[in-house]
Amino acid sequence: MNARVFSTPRPVPGRFAPALAGSGLVLLALPVFAVAGWPLRGWALAAVLWLGAQGLAVLLTRLPLGDGNLAASGVRGIGMSFRAFIVGIPLVAVTVADARVGVAAALLYALAYTLELAVSLLAYFGSERRA
Question: How far apart are CA 22 and CA 34, in angstroms?
């Protein structure tokens, strides 16, 4: 493999394709949940958490980055990290109350997040390096 594939810096890829991939997976999981007899409340919880996290990501990515915007950069970084708590706390609470629903929601969310991350990495490393 060519070492230049992993060299940086590269332009930040867009968020549309990764978010669309994860959202598509969540939508395609609905008939799978229905046919397999898995709890639809688990699918609904994962879908609501996915939409909420994506909405927060859209708001945070509108904040400017760079040397002249250190406060906004900090808010963006902490906000993106906070997304894990926004998703994790309800998942743990629901899993304690009903393990089947919570585990189904957690697995679906984890799959959608993994797909989003994979598409983001492919977009990043598939782009041309900056000179």
Answer: 19
Cβ-Cβ contacts under 8 Å for 6 (sequence gap 6 or more): 125
- Range(s) of the domain holding residue 82: 13-126
Token pair of 72, please?
């906004």
Element (H, E) at 42: helix 40-61
> What is the spatial distance between Cα 116 and Cα 122, in angstroms, rounded to a whole number?
10
Question: CA 50 to CA 113: how far, in whole Å?
Answer: 9
Is residue 122 over pLDDT 80?
yes
125 — phi, psi (to 5°)?
-80, -10
- Side chain identity at 1, as an amino acid letter? M
Q: How many domains does the chain have?
A: 1
The answer to whether position 67 is within a domain reads yes
Whether 88 is in a domain gets the answer: yes
- Give CA–CA dist 62/72, Å, rounded: 10
Residue ranges with strand state E in 36-112: none
Q: What is the pLDDT of residues 31-53, one digit of tens each?
A: 999 999 999 999 999 999 999 99
Q: What radius of gyration, in Å, describes the C-alpha atoms of the chain?
A: 17
